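#structure-requests
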Amino acid sequence: MMLEMPVWLPISFFLVALTYSMAGFAGGSSYLAILVLAGLPFRQIPPTALLCNLIVSISAFFHFRRGGHFDLKKVLPFVVFSIPMAYAGGRMRISKELFCFLLGGALLIAGTRLFVADKAFGEVRKVSPKTRWLVGLPTGAALGFLSGLVGIGGGIFLSPLLLFWKWANPKEAAAAASFFILVNSLSGLLGQLEKTAFGVSPLFLFLGVAVLIGGQLGACLGSYRLPKFFLQRVSAALILYAAFRLISRPL
C-alpha cells in the first residue's frame, strides 16, 4: 500500500543530493535522518537511503571522472576489502539506539576534523604503492563494515582521510569518495535486503527521481565549476549538520 508522502520529503532529498554531490558525496547520512523524521519503518530506512546513494554516487562519479579527477590507484586499496565488509555490515541487525550513536558520532568526528583543517589540502605528496596497500586494506575494511552497518556509502570517511594524509587534492578525494560510495552502497544494500522483510520504501520511486535530478546538477557544478576549497567547507558543514541532527534526535 502506498504511503502518503509529505511534499517536503522529495524536496529535501533533492536539496541533499544537490549539495552533497558537489563534494562527491551521495547524502546517505542526511537521507537516513530525513526518513527517520518522516516516520518510515526502521528496517526500510537503510535500504531506501542506500538506493538513493547509488543514484547520486553514479552521477557524481561520472562527472568527477569526466573532469579528469579520478585515479583508480588512489582508491583501489580501500575498495578491495570494503566491498565484502560492507555486505557483512549490512547483514547485521542493530538497535535503533546503536544505529543513531554510530552514525551521529562518526559523522561528528569526520565533519569536525575536515572543518578545522588548514588550507594545505591542495598539496599532494607522493605515496608508494606498498604504503597505499598496507594502509588502504585495513582502513577500507573498517570503513566498509561501518558503512554497511548503518546504511551509508562511506565516502564521507574516506575523503577526509585522503585529504589529511595528503594523498589526494579535494577534487581527487571527491572522485574517490563517489566511487567508494557507489561500490559500498551496492554491497551494503545486498546485505540490508537479506535481513529485512520490509525491503525498500514504496516512496522510493519519487525520492529516486528527486535525487537523480539533484545529484546530476550538483555533481556537474562540483566537478567543473566550484573551487576545490569550497568543496571542503560545503562537505564539512553538511556532515556536521547531519551529525548534530542525529545526536540531538535519538531514534
